[in-house]
Amino acid sequence: MSKMIATRDAYKEALVTLGQENPNVVVLDADLAKSTMTIGFAQRFPERFFSIGIAEANMTGIAAGLAASGKIPFASTFAIFATGRAYEQIRNSIGYPHLNVKIAATHAGITVGEDGATHQSIEDMGLMRGIPGMTVICPADGVETAAAVRAIADYVGPVYLRMGRSAVPVIMPKDYEMSWGKAVYLREGRDVSLVATGMMSAVALEAAEVLAAEGIGAEVLHVPFIKPLDQEAVVATAKKTGAVVTAEEHSIINGLGSAVAECLSEQAPTPICRIGIQDTFGESGKPAQLLEKYSLTAKDIVAAAKQVMLQKRT
Amino acid sequence: MLNTNEAIAREIRREILKATAAAKSGHPGGSLSLAEIMTVLYFDEMKVDANDPQNPERDRFVMSKGHATPVLYATLALKGFFPVAELASFRQINSRLQGHPDMKHIPGVDFTTGSLGQGLSGALGMALAGKLDHSPRRVYTIIGDGECQEGQIWEAAMAASHYKLDNLVVILDYNNLQICGEICDVMNIEPIQDKWKAFGWHVIELDGHDFSQIRAALQGARATKGQPTLLLAHTVKGKGISFMENKAEWHGSAPNAEQLALALAELAEKEVVRHE
What we know:
The complex is a heterodimer. Chain A is an alpha/beta fold. Chain A has helices spanning 7-21, 33-36, 39-44, 56-68, 79-85, 87-95, 124-129, 142-154, 200-213, 231-241, 256-267, 287-293, 298-310; strands spanning 4-6, 25-29, 49-51, 72-76, 102-105, 135-137, 159-162, 167-169, 184-187, 192-196, 218-222, 225-227, 244-251, 272-277. Chain A has a 7-stranded mixed β-sheet with strand order 3-2-4-5-7-6-12, with helices on both faces. Chain A has a 5-stranded mixed β-sheet with strand order 9-11-10-13-14, with helices on both faces. In chain A, strands 1-8 form a two-stranded antiparallel ribbon. In chain A, helix 4 (56-68) runs parallel beside helix 6 (87-95) and helix 9 (200-213) crosses helix 13. The longest helix of chain A is centred in the N-terminal third of the chain and has 15 residues, at 7-21. By secondary structure, chain B is α/β, with parallel strands linked by helices. Chain B has helices at 5-23, 29-32, 35-45, 69-79, 119-132, 151-162, 183-187, 192-198, 211-223, 257-275, and strands at residues 60-63, 139-144, 168-174, 177-178, 181-182, 202-207, 229-234. Chain B has a 5-stranded parallel β-sheet, sandwiched between helices. Chain B has a two-stranded antiparallel sheet with strand order 4-5. In chain B, helix 6 (151-162) links the parallel strand 2 and strand 3. The A-B interface holds A 26, 47-48, 50, 52-53, 55, 57-58, 60-71, 73, 88-89, 92-93, 96-98 and B 56, 60, 62, 102-104, 110-115, 117-130, 132-133, 151-152, 155-156, 158-159, 162-163.
């Protein structure tokens, strides 16, 4: 069993480290600092931390103004509010002028758990992906989250960083560095491609083990960048195996599955099966129960892999 | 000669009319109401240099009511940020003078606006940055009266006073009209002065067409410490053109050729009368 850590906990530490290195980094939060874990930065650098209260639209605009004045703002709250409540503020005040704001949201997806559907953001990547010039990153684990925080601080432009609430397995090596816009091969295989993002990449690895035991070679491609999508890697693995399963803790509409389908249908038409939230709202429950009920387990990926392999063109 | 504020404001009005007429679209009414205020801001008050528009120590301006591009562009052009002749390309294809202000492409535009209610938050971020940098630079923003119906304005109003942003000045262009009619009929914002005061702001009421009152109010804002200042500027929509004054229909429609000629003639006539 690998080590478990929530991406938001990794965010906490990475942000403090970044704050030490870069005096231009400022952090904003909308009364959720103890949950998004920006509390670490707030305690360490109180003069560079701005509590905005429960006012996400305002927080987004303030972040834009700080960026327009040369600061590097990280604006944090839950994914549902960050991208949903303040969507048009992000679009017009940050996206259109391409300002250097990092929207670093936590509590994305259904593993928010007990809070239920109102707090389970399953459309956020789609909302952000549609904004011209926006970068969308969904790290697999705590190690990649820390690497992403470093990378996005160096990059000049708007970024949406998607993190979760619950602890997830660490699958990246300690010395992992993010390659901008690149997908990461986690496992080689020739029979089927499992293209996953966020916490579902660990689940895809688990599925690949099960498939291997049955004699099926699954290639696992982790996609931290929903946008810009590493089209080259996606096309390469699809051409190699001829069958693709996508897996994400997000709606199958407008997220990774859509991005991969768009890419492949134009460049290398390939049978695809999308694992994700099937155009429905979530509900209260424990994260593991929700993943089970909404078909986001290794078992579901295995079944999808076998199904999509039947559609291969020979 | 643009040697008096009056002459500048008149020239701004001419350019507002010409640009919207050439574009056959745009917002002359809520631009004409701001000619005096923009004149004082750019020619008396703000530390800005048209030859160095990105100087980090410049004062900042945010046109939160972003549809007032005619007055913003006319002022910036007359100040020298770009050629006055370029105003003829306003709102037209391949022009950088977009319908609403675009900070990426237009020299002198400090913040992208257009969607009402958002500019004040951006100005607030700039004011916070100024405080962080221990800089004397100031931030000015103009909001509309109808814009006060947006909830985000009040989120920002609360936050600016929470952070004691005395380097932030908001000018409320109270011309009492919005697209669908009078403010009080569409959605009453009164008692507006009490609202801003209750949110912790220093409020100064003034005639937004009186140069000395505008200058005095900005001076009053400078003298105010520990809280942001709101200038409640009573103005006339369509100010200066008799057939446009106090008419909601001039919010978002441009004069045709005949109306333009009439309007320019009115401005010329006033100029002659003043000089006699």
